[in-house]
Specification:
Elements (H helix, E strand, L loop, with lengths): L1 H27 L14 H5 L28 E9 L5 E11 L3 E11 L3 E2 L12 E2 L2 E12 L4 E14 L2 E15 L7 E10 L11 E4 L9 E4 L10 E8 L7 E12 L5 E10 L3 E9 L10 E13 L2 E12 L5 E9 L1
Antiparallel strand pairs: 1-2, 1-18, 2-3, 3-6, 4-5, 6-7, 7-8, 8-9, 9-12, 10-11, 12-13, 13-14, 14-15, 15-16, 16-17, 17-18
Length: 343
């Protein structure tokens, strides 16, 4: 009875979050900020078309669905990845999870964008003043995940968001809440997942970069600096649900099929599908595809994904090496390399 009450409470919270996203989605299309929250991390999930809302597990699941971390098979897990993102932007990611018996799993993760140097321009020097600045974008998260029953896992993540553009900066917080239910309808291998991402208050830029010098023609006062009040912006909230199915083949071969639907408050809805073939739990081939039917072709630039992975056991330490490829219109394709360790 207690477990049922917990499940109902979790579903109620998620539905409230979904209602908030959906109710304002049409009015906020194209206005979401903090876009670094949307950049995926987790090599396995990316190679499967970002469709593993219900099938991610271990430390790699932090971005996709924090509930999946509860399925971690090791006492401690860590993952590190590098992605060549669009426009020569690099995305560095690292996470660590630790299982505290009887309490649950606590995880820390950090994602940072390396954008490089940008010329400082003004109205008087549109080609540059000779100075440069380097934008900084960072997301750091603290997560808690727990396996409530043999079928139900839950997870929540609190994120700290930091953006710096020259002498202007913005800070904020967001929350992700997820649930995964395995063996749905008593069908072995069938999973269902639901997650609400990036729920939080609006963000706003401030700092000395928004000071503007103005002349005061009264009271014999000299030039004064005035603070420009920047507009606040919404976080790019999302509601996602997904299914996964892993049929029983034999001891050497495995197959996983996953699909997901994503509702956004800033763009068109997305549909995703992915698959993973594994041989002897050592070698994996993956592929996926995502689409957004209601978005214009120039607005949605992603599609086909693919990847591979190797899994080794080195004297009690599991080592996973993964690669993902994502096709991108108008830009070079994304290439992601990652390593995951289990102790």
């Amino acid at each position: 009875m207690k477990s049922i009450k917990r499940i109902l409470m979790i579903v109620f919270i998620l539905l409230l979050g979904f209602n908030e996203i959906y109710a304002g989605g049409g009015n906020r299309t194209g206005t979401g900020g903090a876009s670094q929250l949307l950049i995926p991390v987790g090599v396995r999930g990316m190679s499967m078309g970002n469709a593993n809302i219900a099938t991610s597990y271990g430390v790699e699941a932090l971005f996709w669905n924090p509930a999946g971390v509860a399925k971690m098979q090791n006492s401690v897990g860590a993952t590190f990845s590098h992605m060549n993102y669009i426009a020569d932007i690099g995305v560095e990611y690292g996470a660590v999870s630790s299982n505290f018996e009887g309490f649950g799993i606590v995880s820390l993760n950090i994602k940072s964008l390396s954008i490089g140097e940008i010329l400082v321009t003004t109205t008087q020097d549109p080609d540059g003043t000779g100075e440069t600045f380097s934008p900084q974008m960072l997301v750091a998260g603290l997560s808690y995940s727990k396996q409530l029953t043999d079928r139900i896992a839950v997870g929540v993540t609190a994120n700290y968001i930091a953006e710096t553009l020259g002498d202007a900066s913005a800070n904020g917080v967001s929350f992700n809440i997820g649930v995964i239910y395995d063996n749905l309808a008593s069908i072995n291998g069938l999973s269902f997942g639901i997650v609400v991402k990036n729920l939080g208050p609006q963000m706003q830029y401030g700092g000395s970069g928004l000071l503007v010098q103005a002349d005061v023609n009264t009271d014999n006062r000299g030039p004064q600096y005035y603070q420009v009040q920047s507009a606040s912006f919404e976080l790019p909230s999302q509601f996602e649900l997904g299914f996964g199915y892993k049929p029983t083949i034999n001891e050497e071969n495995s197959l996983l099929i996953s699909g997901a639907f994503q509702n956004n408050n800033f763009s068109g809805d997305e549909y995703k599908i992915g698959a993973e073939y594994g041989y002897n739990d050592i070698f994996f081939l993956r592929g996926g595809y995502s689409m957004s039917p209601k978005s214009q072709s120039e607005e949605y630039i992603y599609g086909l994904t693919a990847g591979a992975g190797l899994n080794y056991d080195l004297g009690g330490i599991s080592v996973k090496v993964d690669y993902a490829f994502r096709d991108v219109d108008f830009f070079d394709a994304n290439h992601v390399f990652g390593i995951t360790l289990g102790f």
